Amino acid sequence: MGKIIIAMGSKSDLPFAQQIGSAAKEFGVSVEYRIASAHRTPKKVLELAETANQSKEPTVFVAVAGLSNALSGMLACATFWPVITCPPGTEAVDVWSSLRMPPGVSHGTILGAENAAVYAAKILAVNDLALRKKVAGYLKKKAEKLKKDDQGL
Asked: Where would a tag sit more exposed on the chain, N or C end, judged by fewer CB atoms within 10 A?
């Protein structure tokens, strides 16, 4: 099925990262939390990427870091696995640092914990029929809720 590695720039990002992990559990995807700062512990970021590169288990990284958010860019250049950046929703976050990357350093930017988990699950579902069915069920449940809400007006 694969796993999601949620990499945080610091422990202060943990509450937001746990929202992503909680949403991912709805799909039964394994979640691993790690703290590795591109600015303060760059070797650790590279080791995290290299460990994932050596693994045969499909992996999606979700980078949770605010301010200049170098974490997602560093992961994206160090691993062939997909990287999603999902900066925590605080006033200090510079979203532009997540969007402006040099050529060849590509990652997706998703605002919102639940959406980051859904997108990670969709990526992992490309080669996993059981997970694909869970994602389809999730989407159907969201649509049914809107239909029910509309009927309740």
From this structure: C
